[in-house]
Design brief:
This protein is an alpha+beta fold and 104 residues long. 37% of the residues lie in helices and 10% in strands. The protein has a two-stranded parallel ribbon.
């Protein structure tokens, strides 16, 4: 994926056309055929580049996207980032939240 690193300031205003203009996704057919078969897909990524843009771009393919994340200790900043992600159809599953089964 080619990405720009400082787009988060405008993230909430980005639409699918813009995201696809600045990002490339390979093997889209493989992703969609796996979902049609009822199979999930697991993407594993380091927190490098602009992962916010990458997940939003995938979500705009009408692929359900869940991201495992650590809650940011500044509540206002955490709420802002969760809101940004939700506006792009990206769901956050927080580590160490009861019921998720995900521990740090």
């Amino acid at each position: 994926m080619k990405q720009k690193n400082f787009e988060l300031a405008n993230f909430q205003h980005m639409d699918s056309k813009f995201l696809h203009k600045i990002s490339d996704i390979e093997n889209v057919e493989l992703i969609k055929s796996s979902l049609k078969k009822g199979k999930g897909i697991l993407f594993v990524s380091a927190h490098a580049g602009n992962c916010e843009m990458a997940t939003a771009t995938v979500a705009w393919l009408d692929v359900p996207v869940n991201v495992v994340a650590k809650k940011i200790y500044i509540d206002e900043l955490n709420d802002m980032l969760v809101g940004y992600r939700a506006s792009k159809k990206v769901n956050i599953i927080f580590k160490d939240t009861p019921g998720t089964g995900i521990k740090q």
